[in-house]
Amino acid sequence: MTAALDSTTTRGTVDLGPAVELVSKEEGHRQPLAPEFVSAEDFSPLEVAYDFGRVRREDIQAGPRNIWRYKKLLPVPSNVEEIPNTEPGCTRLVKADRLAKALGVKSLWVKDDTGNPTHSFKDRVVAVALAAAREFGFDTLACPSTGNLANAVAAAAARAGWQSVVLIPSSLERAKVLTTAVYDGNLIAVDGNYDDVNRLATELAAEHENWAFVNVNVRPYYSEGSKTLAYEVAEQLGWRIPEQIVVPIASGSQLTKVDKGFREFAKLGLVDDTPYKVFGAQAAGCSPVSAAFRNGHDVVQPVKPDTIARSLAIGNPADGPYVLDTVRRTGGAIEDVTDAEVVEGIRLLARTEGIFTETAGGVTVATAKKLIEAGKIDPDAETVLLITGDGLKTLDAIENEVGPKATVPPSAAAVHEALGL
Amino acid sequence: MTAALDSTTTRGTVDLGPAVELVSKEEGHRQPLAPEFVSAEDFSPLEVAYDFGRVRREDIQAGPRNIWRYKKLLPVPSNVEEIPNTEPGCTRLVKADRLAKALGVKSLWVKDDTGNPTHSFKDRVVAVALAAAREFGFDTLACPSTGNLANAVAAAAARAGWQSVVLIPSSLERAKVLTTAVYDGNLIAVDGNYDDVNRLATELAAEHENWAFVNVNVRPYYSEGSKTLAYEVAEQLGWRIPEQIVVPIASGSQLTKVDKGFREFAKLGLVDDTPYKVFGAQAAGCSPVSAAFRNGHDVVQPVKPDTIARSLAIGNPADGPYVLDTVRRTGGAIEDVTDAEVVEGIRLLARTEGIFTETAGGVTVATAKKLIEAGKIDPDAETVLLITGDGLKTLDAIENEVGPKATVPPSAAAVHEALGL
Predict the structure, then answer these.
(1) What are the tens digits of pLDDT across the range B146-162?
(2) How far is Cα B234 from Cα B228, in angstroms, rounded to an integer?
(3) Going by C-beta distance under 8 Å and a sequence separation of 6 or more, which residues neighbour residue A58?
């Protein structure tokens, strides 16, 4: 592994498609595209700014059946689809009539992102991070993670032929360790909690010029991958923005990027600029953004997470304030649900639509239910739920909840009796 | 649950699209479309016969991004996409350059069917079975299963709002029980082995006129779903048939249907009628078809399975003789691999392409490797590997094989040491 970064030379030559510079979120300071994530001017997160030019529906429709069809709207090279990477996206948008009926709403869709290569939306952000990191001269893909991100990084690096360094807490469940280790990168278990692992990642990112920590030093590019969820929903609805969308909140990045995606589509004239409301979903055991929303605060008070929805368990969400802005601007709301409600959300989606989601999806379904019951989600307006991860990865959540109806001897009579026939 | 079948009335009214009758595989006896699976004339399996009329590429391309785009080639109603069902298919065809290099071949593709709703190709066959069963007046979807099929049936029934009856051996691993039970159908654990469960299913199918056992009484329709694997591969290659394809063998149905799919596409003029070779893959611990092929036999001697590739562990494969016919006719071959080779196949695919397959996929990759090394697969001809299920469902296969490179304290120095930096 050799360092290949030289900011003076690479900046001039990087091809990140329509991306032109980085802008600080607070005061709008501008700086050239580089693998940096915090503004030295105002210490706020850096975000990618673009010059899209003209983008037509036909350009998108002529592209591949994955997120690279939106390459003219992402910070990736113009020939991104020719370079080895995963091909996430174009997952199903399912008309959920049975769930709609159960929830008492008229029109409901489920965006089922379990169909991605490693079965979560993280494949989207990691694919964009990998594409951008390659342009900056990195040769190693890295992350701290407790699950979905570890899978996505290890798989994408394997596909690209890159080294990977994935840091996990040593207490992580064996299943999550296996599903990352199988890709044969450098998986390192760290004796410590996720905060320790995260701190270590930031330290290592500063030391290794050739290590792209997807959610640290290339985070501005990485996070743009979530916009593709909005693009796909709008395209799959027949080029229009849904009236309401419910998004789970971990760092909060995904929610703000879904909103950004809709706004970009409207601004480019790809869809009509119709109003929409963005709703946020948290688990009660880690609900700092929901609490801030409820209390009318602009800042988010960090919490110590305690919930089964571990993929959402970020106690100090970096994009919390921006989530509050987005939800308030669009007229949405944020709610949180108990772990028991999360499990019921998982089961409700499974039994009505045959879609088995991880705990984060249970949070989204249960929160939607609560918001509908509270009259905050309009039952007559069309709603989309983002289901971002797979139930196979969080089996422990339902372990004590579901099972066979009966165990019987191998006879038809016994089966009939068990079924009350 | 009420019986709704009346063969005299339903036969006249069923709309199964291009399907016109059932034909016995041995002697070609014809009979009307009905929920029957064995010919009363010659006791051979019944297969669907069609009158396709004209089918153009544009008809297919105008369809949805799932198997219903091929509805004019399947035994399903003309309006199938409007009826609640899962929407499997249109999974990724991945250009596998790194795996190709590792195996020493020029051009290799992986059909990654882990992207289906319940992450195996079984969603394809179950969706077709459900669509046909509805036309015949059934209202309950059922199966005996040890895994993937149970997931697919329970999920599809949930989505359709049907009852389901899924029979599993009571010894089944907890994970597979959970991933079926979550859909909240009638999951019944049976004290007995898979053979006992299978016998029980046949008995129950005869007793319950409204229970569609997907792989028993509606098997002729069910099995046609596997043709869509061939259709998709051909369409995704730019409307052409690959020169070589490697298919895992359980009952053997999938392999024969992939061949049927290619032949139909060629006959309809959707692709050029170019020659292709079909290769079969088995685990050494359950290799009755491979053994028959090696010994030049036309019949398959049943075996007692003993392999980690449990989704392929059918000791008496119903379509074994037809597999032999297909492979010999096309000039292919059949091989089998040890459980150790299966695990290495899983790991090879994961580390080269970032795709984590179940044991059946490991069988396919390892068998391809063996056939290439033996010179039976031409390294200069284009090859497609069918990866039909997901590694998340068979974690036990790699449990003792992979893990973190090291467990370290939370310090950069410790990470460096672990990585030899």
Answers:
(1) 899 999 999 999 999 99
(2) 10
(3) none
Q: A54-65 in b/e burial notation, b at 16+ Cβ within 10 A?
A: ebeeeebeebee
Least CB–CB distance from B354: residue in A98, A159, A204: A159
Which residue in the set B161, B190, B408 is minimally distant from A188, CB to CB? Answer: B408
Are the beta carbons of A178 and B395 separated by less than 8 Å? yes
Q: Where are the domains of chain B?
A: 92-119+223-397, 137-217
Would you call B420 exposed, middle or buried from its count of C-beta atoms within 10 A (0-12, 13-18, 19+)?
A: exposed
CB proximity list for B218: less than 8 A, separation 6 or greater: B35, B37, B129, B132, B133, B136, B138, B212
Query: Is A42's pLDDT higher than 80?
Result: yes
pLDDT single digits (tens) A183-222:
999 999 999 888 889 999 999 999 999 999 999 999 999 9
Residue A140: what are its φ and ψ, rounded to 5°? -135, 130
Of B184, B197, B398, the CB nearest to A351: B184
d(CA A334, CA A280): 4
Report the residue from A181, A188, A409 with minimal CB separation from B415: A188
Rounded distance between C-alpha atoms, residue A281 and residue A286, angstroms? 10
CATH of B92-119+223-397, one of 3.40.50.11540, 1.10.10.10, 3.10.450.50, 3.40.50.1100: 3.40.50.1100
Helices (H) and strands (E) in chain B, counts: 15, 14
Interface contact flag, A392 B390, Cβ < 8 Å = yes
**Tokens representing residue A261 in the block:** 């995606």
Are B395 and A87 inside 8 Å of each other by CB?
no
* pLDDT at residue A421 is higher than 60: yes
The mean pLDDT of chain B is: 95
- Return the residue in A358, A392, A394 with the most chain B beta carbons within 10 A, the one to mutate for interface testing: A392
What 8-state DSSP symbol labels residue B212? Answer: E
Residue B7 has pLDDT above 60, yes or no: no
Residue among A171, A349, A356, A387 with most chain B CBs within 10 A, to mutate: A356
CA atoms within 13 Å, Cβ hemisphere of B386: 30
Look up residue A347 and give its two tokens: 């089961």
CA–CA dist A403, B1 (Å, integer) = 22
Partner-chain contact A115 B116, CB within 8 Å: yes
Number of residues that make up chain A? 421
B407 to A191: CB separation less than 8 angstroms, yes or no:
yes
Q: Which CATH architecture has domain B137-217?
A: 3-Layer(aba) Sandwich (3.40)
Work out the minimum CA distance from A176 to partner chain B, whole angstroms: 10
- Chain A environment of B356 (Cβ under 8 Å): 118, 155, 179, 182-183
Contact call for B188 and A350, based on CB within 8 A: no
Question: Which residues on A lie below 8 Å from B127 (Cβ)?
Answer: none
Asked if residues A207 and B421 have their Cβ atoms less than 8 Å apart, the reply is no
**Long-range contacts from B25-29, C-beta under 8 angstroms, 24+ separation:** B25/B322
